């Protein structure tokens, strides 16, 4: 059987370029008699870490531009709008302390001196068997249905029943990408960047690959470890029907970026992010109703198309529909009770005053008594942008909250004490 050489091309290591123009002669490309050329496959194995920290061993074209390679990867993974993603080179924690040019020089020296086999990002040699190194991912002991099957032979071009071109594999891969396995934070910290200052945060962005150059031209070798991440936080046309994998990967990247403090945000913003995701998980577990209202009447026919459903929704919003089963959704919940209030000042004794407090929307209003709650409040606090610190001691039955309210001078402290 004749071997297929259609995937091979000439690589010129001295000039760091591919010779891909079939109509040009070697002399026209500047190749002399003493030049050393490599006849190598254009598609090579690459360890790709996704935003949810899963690592997959994929075949990537090293001869095309990085942007085109990302488009092909996203098409294989089922992610729409690949222009939002890019490839990021994996740097060690020690590399973040060096200048980007020094790190690039060190990587090139290692790649040039390691002839026995490909070198991974953590400096250990790997064989070309295509197996995934557990040290590069928090999934060292994942089951077979959560990882890429090892029955796909990427070197002889043959397909096995569990290959990435089979329907069974595509279904399992889509399921693992749309519903990422849970990872403990302690294990994930070993594989995440945790910058300590602004200089290290800036150096992380130096690891992005150039979208206009090929992987080979940027020093990426076979079986190297590369991260696929969302580069621009501006997402277009998010549709839960078609973007289950994309939405999950966006959430996973945002989650780990917040936990590792790669993105600066307040504690309130992190809690809002967690609360929204908690609500999404709760709603996803509830059965979806096929009726217009919760009473079970006026069911939409099965044959109704999307345009008809949109017109029906518009008509209901203009005429008004029966939503009595859900109650008044415009009512704003309110908390009210007696609270002890104290605002610390310099050279003052710690004395609490008892007020009737109501918490509605984003405001806390204080009244002298419950009967005066219908009138103007004595004081009103906006909780938007505030920070809280619990002050609780169960042994002494002490239940309090320290509230830090932003003002013109910075953050002012307010202490609230509760009876129960």
Describe the protein:
There is one protein chain. By secondary structure, this protein is α+β, with helices and mostly antiparallel strands. The chain has 2 domains: about 40-265, no CATH class; about 335-420, Pleckstrin-homology domain (PH domain)/Phosphotyrosine-binding domain (PTB) (PH-domain like, Roll). Helices cover about 25% and strands about 20% of the residues. The protein is built from 8 helices and 14 strands. It has helices at about 65-75, 100-115, 165-180, 185-190, 200-205, 245-260, 265-285, 305-320, and strands spanning about 10, 15-20, 40, 45-50, 55-60, 85-90, 225-230, 335-340, 355-360, 365, 380, 385-395, 400-405, 410-420. The chain has a 7-stranded antiparallel β-sheet, with no helix packed on it. Mean pLDDT is about 75; it is low at about 115-135, about 140-170, about 290-305 and about 320-325. This is Band 4.1 domain-containing protein. Pfam families: FERM_M (PF00373), Kindlin_2_N (PF18124).
Low-confidence stretches: 114-134, 140-169, 290-304, 321-326
- Report strand order across the widest sheet: 11-10-9-8-14-13-12
What is the terminal separation in angstroms? 83 Å
Total beta strand runs: 14
Overall shape: it is elongated
Mean pLDDT over all positions: 76
Rg: 29 Å
**How helix-rich are the residues, as a percent range?**
10-25%
Query: Structural class, from helix and strand content?
Result: alpha+beta
- List the total number of helices: 8
> Tell me about the biggest sheet?
7 strands, antiparallel
Query: How are helices and strands ordered from N to C?
Result: EEEEEHEHHHHEHHHEEEEEEE
Total domains:
2
Sheet-strand content, in percent, reads 15-25%
